[in-house]
């Protein structure tokens, strides 16, 4: 299997909504974003799939060395071998790949965020920088599009956090800021249990959890609106893949907002056909 096929397989196997937006790109840009996405998946998998924290630390250190070697012309991993040929074309920098690794490092170093400002720092590394690179690959021509890409990346990551509240709790992780849990009188142990403590009132827990999640969903929806408002009209056509992803993710977010209790027990998702329809609608009709 050559590096390009490896990256394609890695991206397709993830089942991510992002993959549907890539389908509408010209071949060269599609190859570049697929390779970049494969790199991001490889690094993210270190945190998600490696149980031993020491081993995960070693693997992230290896990826930092791999980025340095790749930009020196000596990539050894198929994901970086697929990506490096596109870096000069689309102005992809080593600092951006290292920022993604730094974001994954945060997952190893902490499993709580005291406030939204600290959570935003994490989101910037794992999603804002990804949006910045993606915007360049899609065909950015305006400097202001970088701000749009960062804001849209934040919206995507907030959606992921909301969707994965239950899954993250199983891993002992809570991304919702501590001060916001306190504001809505949710205890960390309740989220980790995905329900009230023994002898607690389930109805009261549901009331408090729904209020917390309504706040989270409203902020994420507002972040989408702010991102879309920042996109310069000159780049709207080129940035259609990002708009496709926004359509898919915002639709998912609205479904969660309609019944946020679902995230405690299962992963809420859209069907592949629905994702493709939402992406096609943006491509063909220009509507989110």
Provide the descriptors you would attach to this structure in a database record.
mainly alpha; single chain; globular; 2 domains; Farnesyl Diphosphate Synthase; 288 residues; 0% strand; 14 helices
Overall average pLDDT: 92
Strand tally is: 0
Low-confidence sequence ranges: none
Q: Report the span from N to C terminus.
A: 37 Å
For this structure, what is the CATH class of the largest domain?
Answer: Mainly Alpha
CATH superfamily of the largest domain: Farnesyl Diphosphate Synthase
Strand content: under 5%
Q: Indicate how many domains the architecture comprises.
A: 2
* Number of helical segments with 4 or more residues: 14
Instruction: Write down the CATH topology of the largest domain.
Output: Farnesyl Diphosphate Synthase
**Assembly category:** single chain
CATH architecture group name of the largest domain: Orthogonal Bundle
The secondary structure category is mainly alpha
Q: What's the story with the biggest beta sheet?
A: none
Helical content, roughly? over 70%
Based on CA atoms alone, the radius of gyration comes out at 19 Å
The gross shape turns out to be globular
Q: Could you walk me through the main structural features you see in this protein, from its secondary elements to its overall organization?
A:
With 288 residues, the chain is mostly helical. The protein has 2 domains: 1-109, Farnesyl Diphosphate Synthase; 111-288, Farnesyl Diphosphate Synthase (Orthogonal Bundle), CATH 1.10.600. It contains 14 helices and no strands. The chain has helices spanning 3-13, 18-22, 27-49, 53-71, 78-87, 94-109, 116-138, 145-163, 165-170, 178-183, 188-193, 202-230, 240-258, 272-285. The two termini are 37 Å apart. The model has no long low-confidence stretch (mean pLDDT 92).
């Amino acid at each position: 299997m050559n590096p390009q096929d490896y990256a394609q397989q890695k991206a397709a196997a993830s089942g991510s909504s992002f993959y549907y937006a890539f389908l509408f790109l010209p071949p060269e840009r599609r190859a570049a974003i697929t390779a970049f996405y494969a790199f991001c998946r490889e690094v993210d998998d270190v945190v998600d799939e490696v149980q031993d924290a020491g081993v995960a630390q070693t693997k992230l250190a290896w990826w930092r060395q791999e980025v340095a070697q790749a930009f020196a012309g000596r990539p050894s991993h198929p994901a970086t071998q697929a990506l490096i040929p596109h870096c000069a074309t689309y102005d992809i920098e080593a600092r951006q790949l290292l920022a993604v690794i730094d974001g994954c490092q945060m997952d190893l170093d902490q499993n709580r965020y005291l406030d939204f400002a600290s959570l935003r720092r994490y989101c910037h590394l794992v999603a804002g920088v990804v949006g910045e690179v993606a915007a360049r690959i899609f065909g950015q021509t305006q400097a202001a599009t970088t701000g749009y890409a960062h804001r849209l990346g934040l919206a995507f990551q907030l959606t992921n956090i909301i969707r994965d509240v239950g899954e993250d709790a199983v891993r002992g992780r809570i991304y919702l800021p501590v001060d916001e849990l306190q504001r809505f009188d949710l205890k960390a142990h309740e989220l980790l249990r995905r329900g009230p403590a023994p002898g607690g009132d389930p109805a009261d827990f549901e009331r408090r959890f729904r209020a917390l999640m309504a706040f989270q969903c409203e902020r994420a929806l507002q972040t989408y609106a702010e991102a879309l408002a920042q996109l310069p009209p000159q780049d709207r056509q080129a940035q259609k893949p990002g708009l496709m992803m926004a359509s898919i993710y915002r639709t998912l977010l609205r479904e969660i907002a309609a019944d946020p209790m679902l995230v405690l027990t299962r992963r809420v998702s859209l069907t592949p056909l629905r994702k493709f329809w939402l992406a096609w609608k943006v491509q063909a009709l220009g509507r989110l």
